[in-house]
Amino acid sequence: MTDRLDLVAPELRAALDYFPKIDFGAGIEPYRGNIFGAERPPLPPELVAVEHEERLIAGHPGDPDVRILIYTPPGVATAPRPAILEIHGGGFVIGNADMGDAGNRALALQLGCVVVSVDYRLAPETVWPGALHDCYAALTWLHDNAGALGVDPTRIAIAGGSAGGGHAAALAIHARDQAGPAICFQLLDFPMLDDRTCSAADPHPYCGDFGWTPEMNRFGWRSLLGTEPGGPDVSEAMAPARTRDLSRLPPAYIMVGALDLFLEEDLEYARRLARVGVPVELHVIPGAYHGFGLAQTAPQTQQAIRWRMDALARALGVTLA
Hints:
The structure is a single chain. By secondary structure, the protein is of the alpha/beta class. It has a single domain (2-38, 48-316), classed as 3-Layer(aba) Sandwich (Rossmann fold), CATH 3.40.50. Helix content is 31%, strand content 17%. It has helices at 2-5, 10-13, 45-48, 101-111, 130-144, 146-149, 163-177, 214-225, 263-275, 299-316, and strands at 51-57, 66-72, 81-87, 114-119, 151-161, 185-189, 252-257, 280-285. β3 (81-87), α4 (101-111) and β4 (114-119) form a beta-alpha-beta unit. The longest helix has 18 residues, at 299-316. The termini are far apart. The model has no long low-confidence stretch (mean pLDDT 95). Keywords: Hydrolase. GO terms for molecular function: hydrolase activity. It holds the Pfam family Abhydrolase_3. Residues 85-292 form the Alpha/beta hydrolase fold-3 domain.
């Protein structure tokens, strides 16, 4: 392991000590709360000023209502605002919409946009396509209520990291196939796209040691699919990377660390999007592992934040200060 640690960028090594030791073999519940074991610091006044609202909206027919959080910048808008549907991460099995509170407030404030975070149902209690249906219900609600929310329905982006990035990619495909609400942009941070990574005959020799391991990945995918990942019984609809036709999807931003377990599946997804004419912005962070953003002050994290904000600003037609 020492030689693998040497591959981690020096600025990112200290944050590894703060990662929780996750063993899903011992059950999920211990990780369903605040897995980092510390209270969130108080929000600065400018983020407190962002309006926060919780609602329950109708889910897919036959499914329960979906909880969403809505973040609206302070002040009176002179024109309809853009919007972002944010989908949280957590390996399909943990996490909630509240975990991105500070980040979603910052997005709303800096981009002058409405942010809606969706509290989709988790696996294994809810298998595919439950979470996809919840995310699509939130997207449809956001589009249908754009007028009341002061949102421009032609400027709705979707965003997510890790499992949230996988859900966002799946949502873009589903919305296209359903001739649903238009999505102007998909922001995919280190997205979890391909169940076949769990069964690769020749796995990457240097990826997956930190942050999110192959064992955790198999558990997450098995929980979502309700079957073993990587097999022939997994349909193309169940994993974005299995989708044969990636044409006519929204422009994409993909960022991944060079030591992330998802490196090769994300690179391949970017290549395939570009191959069918979908504009793609791709960033690979040297020496970065899955979840390296926990090193909040590291230059790699700060650069990734700037890239992300710039990409969203361009897609939404916003000028950053």
